[in-house]
Write a structure and sequence with these properties.
Distance between the termini of chain B: 50 Å
Chains: A mainly alpha (321), B mainly alpha (677), C mainly alpha (233)
Strand content of chain B: 5-15%
Radius of gyration of chain B: 26 Å
Mean pLDDT of chain B: 90
Number of strands of chain A: 1
Number of helices of chain A: 12
Oligomer: heterotrimer
Number of domains of chain A: 1
Structural class of chain B: mainly alpha
Chain lengths: 321, 677, 233
């Protein structure tokens, strides 16, 4: 059990680190095909990261330690989250500590680190980006935690492996109104946290609309590689979190090698499918104005609150509570 | 006499010695002597508190000290917890104050201020030891008066200090009136004034009496804790006080408001009906959201920290309210967790807020500025202070691996599991409370990113900020002590477990121990949740090492870091004036919460003389008035002013009339007595 | 149909019913609002259908069919026609002018984020109010009672805060949907004749409002109800 458990954790982290650029490549490729372009190919983001990692490190004048530390911290938070979430197995050595609130807070820590780096550069772009990023991050938090609340009600705990294995054994939880509303709310929150359309456009370089790109404008070389890798890992981890919570089938609940192997393959497929769907949807969506974002987040907050209330409104778990 | 007793007397003695030293010692030695005595008083408080947390109980009756009532002192684990917090903050801040007040540039170094400081420190340590109504009120008033004198220390330097002092004096004394009325009535109904008698008689009183006492006392104490809408003094007094005094007030004095609420609500009244606690949760929620929103808008570093105190006390009140709610519904285990979370948050908040105020004081000391818009670049000139501020800010944003995260995590756990308690009230209040905590945590992240990023990072926006130098060693030492507390609380919160359990039991919530004592992680046996801060730190460290190694692994040859110009869009190197300021950082949030905050904006465009299309200067001004204060206090103050004006007619200046009033009053009294008998 | 499946499906129908009301509050395009309203009609029809299948009552199934035809078919159709009538072709040229756009609820009295938060509070209120009723007879259907009440409240809120006449019609219909849902959930439906009468009333009201909208358009050139104030002058 122990060996398999440790292998599962290592596999999760390795898969997220190695797979994140591929996921981005896949999403760009899907988008390109739908828009009638040839696309750069699946492994282009990998090549980009490798190229950037090999370049000479550059420090813009007037930046300090926060600027240099942020990329590593961003990657580190995403890696720790990848280790904590039961992406492929619920029987990992960290399962007792895999608390959903900790996961949410660690992701926020990455955001904060990057926002500080944006301010540290001392340029208008950096400040603008971090100001907007922190506004969005601050408003996403209630949705995130209420969705956590809704998810923890049927399981009776905020422990992720417990929630996931509970859902595997009792799939009707997922099809209940509470489960569906929580999915919707968390999905919107994930879009905002990962900086995707309609909250932020990862491909834009227009100052009116930039959020994430404005923050990291000063990065170059290996630092930029880490920032890119970190953002890609965040996206992967967030999509992985969604799949683990709402499509948990295939995640190993027993400590056997076959279960683990199947779970790994299924995890890759599920996240790739979700990414492709997201990319396809993004073709049809427009980015909303920055000051319409609160509306979107208020809506997702409402969904999350309804998810919490629905779980005791409606009979599923009600009454007993 | 036990350890607790002797330590407390030691604290009082050290404080008196410090006060004498402040009065008599020559100016050159004054700061050091006062600092040493105050630190000793603080340490004695820590010793007494630790002994009490360890299970020691102590009580003393000193009938001869105070005529009529006498002084009653008693220490249990709940008092002990607050003594430890006050004592530790006092000790560290005393060390800091040696440097801060010792340089003679502030009013804080004057003879009077130096003499009062140890007394204030001693009351902070002693208030939790009071065990009768008269003793409590006496110490409480001593604390209020000494803090008022200290707030006014710099009144010669800045006129704003006087206004702040008036606000503080009025609010704190209105609070005292409420407290006096509530506790005196309580004592009158029970027929005794020691806490032991109140404890015995409290639960038997009629619900109306209990409710009124609770409302009066809680309102007064919540005002001391800075809860909205009774917070108006806090954002005025904390910024205007000398920084070490702000630290003491924000990290130790406001806690005592919380102590009073727990002591009276849980211990003396023995818990109460649901509406008490719902009202407390509502107050807490309002304070949390409103406080952090005002902090987000504030560009004054110390004002921002003061509003953040309101926010954190709001979170604590939510925890206390939830605990009372669970206890009223008959779930002592959950009530214990919620109360432990609230108390732990008090401890954590004290650690990081004291450090934040001290660091803000160091900045003020070095630059003379509190305005974030004009600071910046301090990480280069004051690296230690910037690092310490960053450490404290990590605690304040409630993200791992900071210490604030642990208590907020506990609070969230207790609320999330609170749905097990049946009832419409919990079903509606708990999700909203979770949302409020999440929103305030999210906004707190924005607030402290702003404070740290704009105030300490980037490049200096003013000459003072550019010329700043690192503060003296004693200030750094004081801050270092607080930083050590922050780190300890963040990494090894389990150490406090046993003490917290005992404090919760002493408050009268008898669940089985909510927290597993000792160990590396925080474990909630009742809720099957656990948190291992040390592992999170280890994981993050490993992750950072891995990420920093990636470029080395990928690189073909090692190349040195090269400096490069900032991206300037081809328009020449960007100047610090182009960087984002605190005001601009807060602009999106201000727009989002426009309806709540109702900011006043003023854009003033000066056109060039040659053409109306060329702009010479644009002046943008934003003021975010405290709306609650505006709506709530202004009418009352106007009413009072009108009443005062009309009452002026009674006093035309004639001596005969004044004597006549006295005579008339005496006769009326006698008539009433004669008829009434 | 097993008890568990019935409960699950009923909950889903109620969840969808409430969600539709929330989305009406969220969206600005009137066409989208009408679509969502039609979907809500289907969710509403599903409730008596499920109840009928569960309790083996043919009349409920018939009522379900009637509701589906009226609320998901006829009413949305009428509203769509009203929308097309009120925003004729020449109007599209000046669609960009704020406030004069007939196809969008551009500026509700309460902004969208605030109305969503209000809807959250209203839902909680509905839950609190319905608790004593649920306690009388806790079956799966009565437990979902707050959903009906919440939709009633949200409908009233839409009615009170929207400027476009058509959006207000939708608010009114939401209110009516909520009442119908409450009736079904609380007592397995009102008698058929009452339901028919109410539906007829609703139809009539929509027709009247449609005529009113057209009249308003010819008189004022817009359906912004604030312009009705001019009538008082």
């Amino acid at each position: 059990m122990n060996v398999i458990g440790y292998t599962a954790v290592v596999a999760q982290v390795a898969l997220v680190v190695a797979g994140a650029p591929l996921l981005t490549g896949l999403m760009r490729q899907v988008r390109a095909k739908l828009e009638g372009r040839a696309g750069a190919g699946l492994i282009q983001p990998w090549r980009d990261v490798r190229k950037l990692l090999r370049k000479q490190p550059i420090t813009p004048t007037g930046t300090g330690p926060a600027f240099r530390a942020a990329p590593a911290l961003l990657v580190a938070t995403a890696a720790v989250v990848a280790a904590l979430i039961p992406l492929v197995s619920t029987q990992t050595p960290v399962r007792r500590h895999a608390d959903l609130i900790v996961v949410v807070a660690l992701l926020a820590l990455g955001t904060v680190a990057l926002a500080l780096a944006g301010l540290d550069s001392g340029t208008a772009f950096g400040g603008m980006g971090s100001s907007r990023e922190m506004t969005v991050a601050g408003l996403v938090e209630p949705t995130m935690l209420l969705a956590v609340f809704a998810l923890s009600i049927p399981a009776g705990t905020t422990n992720l492996p417990a929630i996931v294995s509970g859902a595997i054994h009792d799939p009707t939880r997922l099809a209940s109104p509470a489960g569906l509303l929580a999915t919707a709310a968390l999905a919107v929150a994930v879009l905002a946290e990962a900086g995707r359309i309609p909250v932020d456009n990862p491909a834009t370089h227009l100052e009116l609309t930039m959020i994430h790109e404005a923050m990291v404008l000063e990065y170059a070389g290996p630092d930029l590689a880490l920032v890119e890798l970190g953002s890609q890992m965040r996206l992967t981890v967030l999509l992985g979190l969604l799949t683990s919570l709402f499509a948990p089938w295939g995640i190993a609940t027993s400590a056997t090698w076959t279960a683990l192997a199947i779970a790994l393959v299924l995890f890759a497929l599920k996240v790739a499918a979700l990414g492709a769907v997201l990319a396809a949807a993004e073709v049809f969506w427009a980015k909303v104005r920055l000051f319409r974002v609160p509306e979107l987040l208020a809506g997702s907050f409402l969904l999350a609150l309804l998810a919490v209330t629905a779980s005791y409104f409606l009979s599923g778990t009600g009454g007993g509570l | 006499m036990s350890v607790v007793g002797s330590a407390l007397f030691g604290a009082a003695g050290a404080a008196c010695a410090g006060s004498l030293a402040g009065l008599l010692a020559p100016a050159r030695l004054r700061a050091a002597l006062v600092g040493a005595c105050t630190a000793v008083a603080g340490l004695a408080g820590v010793v007494a508190g630790v002994a009490a947390l360890d299970g020691g109980r102590w009580s003393a009756d000193l009938p001869e000290v105070l005529p009529l009532a006498g002084v009653h002192l008693a220490v249990d684990a709940l008092s002990g917890l607050f003594m430890v917090v006050s004592g530790a903050v006092v000790a560290a801040v005393a060390v800091y104050a040696v440097g801060y007040a010792g340089h003679g540039v502030h009013g804080a170094s004057s003879r009077g201020a130096q003499a009062v400081l140890p007394l204030f420190a001693a009351t902070l340590v002693l208030v939790p030891a009071a065990a009768s109504v008269s003793t409590f009120l006496l110490l409480w008033e001593a604390m209020a008066l000494t803090s008022l004198l200290l707030v006014l220390a710099e009144h010669r330097q800045r006129p704003a200090v006087r206004e702040a002092g008036v606000w503080y004096a009025v609010m704190t004394h209105l609070g005292l009136v409420g407290l006096l009325a509530g506790l005196a009535w309580f004592a009158g109904q029970v027929g005794g004034e020691t806490f032991a008698e109140l404890r015995a008689g409290g639960p038997e009183l009629s619900p109306t009496v209990r409710g009124t006492v609770f409302v009066l006392v809680t309102a007064a104490l919540a005002s001391k804790a800075g809860a909205v809408p009774l917070h108006a003094w806090l954002p005025r007094a904390h910024p205007e006080a000398p920084s070490h005094v702000s630290a003491l007030m924000s990290a130790a004095m406001v806690n005592l408001g919380v102590y009073g609420i727990v002591r009276v609500g849980f211990d003396l009244l023995g818990g109460g009906p649901r509406w008490w606690w719902l009202a407390l949760i509502a107050t807490g929620a309002l304070s949390a959201v409103y406080g952090i929103l005002q902090a987000a808008m504030s560009a004054d570093l110390k004002r921002l920290l003061a509003y953040s105190t309101s926010e954190n006390m709001g979170l604590v009140l939510i925890g206390i309210g939830a605990s009372g709610l669970f206890a009223a519904a008959g779930h002592p285990a959950l009530a214990g967790v919620a109360l432990a979370a609230a108390l732990l948050h008090v401890v954590n908040h004290a650690a990081f807020k004291a450090l934040l105020f001290c660091a803000a004081g160091a900045v003020l000391h070095a630059t003379g500025l509190r305005d974030l818009d004009r600071l910046g670049g301090l990480r280069a000139t004051m690296p230690m202070t910037a690092g310490l501020f960053a450490l404290a800010a990590l605690g304040a944003v409630a993200l791992p691996p900071g210490n604030g995260f642990i208590s907020e995590w506990l609070l969230l756990q207790s609320l999330i599991h609170g749905l097990e308690v049946p009832g419409v009230a919990t079903a509606i209040v708990l999700p909203l409370a979770v949302a409020v905590i999440a929103l305030s945590a999210g906004l707190a992240a924005a607030v402290f990113v702003k404070a740290l990023g704009v105030g300490f990072f980037a490049r200096p926006r003013s000459e003072q900020a550019a010329k700043a130098t690192e503060c003296p060693a004693s200030m750094l030492a004081g801050m270092g002590l607080l930083a050590a507390c922050c780190v300890g609380l963040a990494v090894l919160p389990g150490v406090l477990g046993g003490g917290l359990n005992r404090a919760v039991v002493a408050a009268g919530v008898d669940g089985e121990a909510p927290l597993r004592a000792g160990g590396l992680d925080v474990r909630l046996d009742a809720l099957s949740s656990r948190l291992a801060p040390l592992w999170v730190v280890a994981g993050l460290t490993a992750g950072v090492l891995f990420a920093s190694a990636l470029p080395r692994l990928a690189a073909r040859r090692r190349e040195r870091r090269r400096n490069a110009r900032l991206w300037d869009c081809g328009g020449g190197a960007p100047t610090p004036r182009m960087a984002y300021t605190a005001t601009s950082f807060a602009e999106p949030l201000q727009r989002v919460f426009d309806d709540v905050l109702a900011p006043e904006q003023d854009v003033d465009v000066t056109h060039a003389r040659e053409s109306a299309y060329l702009v010479e200067r644009v002046r943008y001004q934003r003021r975010v008035p405290d709306r609650i204060e505006h709506r709530l206090y202004r009418p009352v103050m106007d009413l009072l002013a009108a009443a005062g004006n009309s009452a002026r007619r009674l006093a035309p200046g004639s001596m005969h009339l004044y004597l006549g009033y006295g005579f008339f009053g005496l006769v009326t009294l006698l008539v009433v007595l004669a008829v009434g008998w | 149909m097993s008890e568990a499946t019935f409960t699950q499906l009923l909950d889903l129908a109620c969840g969808g019913f409430l969600l539709a009301a929330v989305i009406v509050l969220w969206r600005r395009e009137l066409t989208a609002i009408i679509q969502v309203f039609a979907l809500q009609g289907l969710a509403l029809a599903a409730i008596p259908l499920l109840l009928g299948l569960h309790e083996h009552r043919a009349d409920l199934v018939a009522v379900a069919a009637g509701i589906a035809a009226l609320r998901a078919g006829l009413l949305p159709y009428l509203m769509r026609r009203a929308l097309i009538a009120s925003a004729p072709a020449e109007d599209r040229g000046r669609r960009h002018r704020e406030g004069s756009d007939e196809r969008r609820e551009t500026q509700p009295v309460v902004n969208v984020a605030a109305s969503l938060l209000t809807a959250a509070m209203l839902t909680l209120l509905a839950y609190a109010v319905a608790q004593p009723l649920v306690a009388l007879d806790p079956t799966p259907a009565t437990r979902a009672l707050p959903v009906g009440l919440a939709v009633v409240l949200i409908g009233f809120f839409v009615l009170a805060t929207r400027r476009r006449a058509l959006a207000q019609v939708v608010g009114f219909l939401l209110l009516d949907n909520g009442i119908t849902a409450t009736a079904f959930l609380a007592a397995s439906g009102v008698p058929l004749i009452v339901e028919l009468g109410v539906s007829f009333d609703v139809l009539l009201a929509v027709l009247v409002l449609q005529i009113l909208t057209t009249r308003m358009r010819t008189a004022f050139g817009t359906t912004d109800l604030d312009d009705l104030r001019e009538l008082a002058d």
